[in-house]
Specification:
- With about 325 residues, the protein is an alpha/beta fold.
- About 40% of the residues lie in helices and about 20% in strands.
- The protein is built from eleven helices and twelve strands.
- It has helices at about 20-35, 50-60, 85-95, 105-120, 130-140, 150-155, 175-190, 205-215, 230-240, 280-290, 310-315, and strands at about 5-15, 40-45, 60-65, 75-80, 100, 120-125, 145-150, 165-170, 220-225, 245-250, 265-270, 295-300.
- The strands form three sheets. The chain has a five-stranded parallel sheet with strand order 10-9-11-1-12, sandwiched between helices. The protein has a four-stranded parallel sheet with strand order 3-2-4-5.
- Strand 9, helix 9 (about 230-240) and strand 10 form a beta-alpha-beta unit.
- Helix 8 runs parallel beside helix 9 (about 230-240).
- It is flat.
């Protein structure tokens, strides 16, 4: 006699998965391959998701970390995370044809930093060292113009240029709550510090964090679908834990699920980082259905309608 599968309720957080910047970046790679043929080079992973990268490699994309590895007769695309100004300068020197897939919301931070610098501000960047977006933002200005702050402890040890006014910008994929704490610490220590005119953390990061907060407190386990090098995906795990999930884990794909983690659970929350495609969400749900009798419910916070224009070179 077949043993009955245990019952499990799955709460799907919405919004989840691809944001407008990721969708635009992937389209840029696909359309460039269609228009110019394969191969097309991409400097750094176009977005931080191994499945997406593999799919684009299958279509003819070659991912490199240095422009010296690019065939000078082929197009090269800069990733959604943005690049230092030295990269397009290098591309022009090498006479490469390039397309910039930087998310427009990252470009907004670049422009903001440049304007503050032009006005003579000493600039703080709240972000994570080593992340390509942070490297890209710092690389918009001369060396030493931007100071990276990662924690509230960093705020206490930071010594700004006393001859200049102080302002801050932020990485777009941070924890909203952590960033608010760091910003509050900056404002407490430097009451006259100038904040961004509009929040730098992008709408998609904010929406996904708020959506996971809505389900985390009533879930035994929250699974976040995303790659380990995806900043916004890792932040979703942290947000779920702080919001009350008994357990939370990052999984890249269905094969990564630790079903021992789900033993005894009655309700599981699922979300996906902004660079994770919906087909990975479906695969995770299908894998869980093989072990449990599943009741599925989507908990929607808001509907996203943001779209970004493609580069003129691909639409003309």
């Amino acid at each position: 006699m077949t043993q009955a599968r245990p019952k499990l309720e799955i709460l799907l957080a919405a919004p989840r998965g691809f944001c407008a910047g990721v969708d635009r970046a992937i389209q840029i790679v696909e359309l460039t391959i269609e228009r110019y043929g394969a191969p097309v080079y991409v400097r750094h992973e176009i977005v931080h998701n191994s499945h997406v990268v593999q799919e684009l490699e299958n279509k003819g994309a070659i991912f490199v970390e240095d422009l010296k590895d690019v065939d000078p007769d082929r197009p090269v695309i800069f990733s959604a995370h943005g690049v230092p100004k030295s990269v397009p300068a290098d591309a022009r020197e090498r006479k490469l044809f390039y397309l910039d897939a930087t998310c427009p919301l990252v470009s907004k931070v670049h422009i903001e930093a440049e304007r503050l610098h032009a006005r003579g501000f000493d600039i703080v960047l709240i972000g994570h060292a080593g992340h390509p977006e942070v490297a890209g933002t710092i690389g918009q200005l001369p060396p030493g113009s931007i100071h990276l702050i990662e924690t509230t402890e960093d705020v206490q040890s930071f010594t700004p240029d006393s001859s200049k006014r102080l302002a801050y910008v932020t990485q777009t994929t941070l924890s909203v709550d952590d960033t608010a704490e760091i910003a509050a610490a900056l404002k407490k220590r430097f009451p006259n510090i100038v904040a961004p005119h509009k929040e730098d953390i992008c709408y998609a990061t904010t929406n996904r964090q708020e959506a996971v907060k809505r389900i985390a407190s009533v879930c035994d386990v929250v699974l976040v679908i995303g790659s380990p090098n995806s900043s916004n995906s890792r932040r979703l795990v942290e947000v779920a834990q702080r919001a009350g999930a008994k357990r939370a884990a990052l999984v890249q794909r269905a094969a990564d699920i630790d079903f021992g983690m789900l033993e005894g659970a009655s309700r599981v929350g699922i979300t996906a980082g902004a660079s994770a495609p919906e087909l990975l969400v479906k695969a995770v749900v299908d894998a869980i259905k093989e072990h449990f009798e599943v009741q599925l419910q989507e908990i929607s916070l808001t509907r996203e309608t943001v779209q970004f224009k493609l580069p003129r070179a691909l639409t003309a």
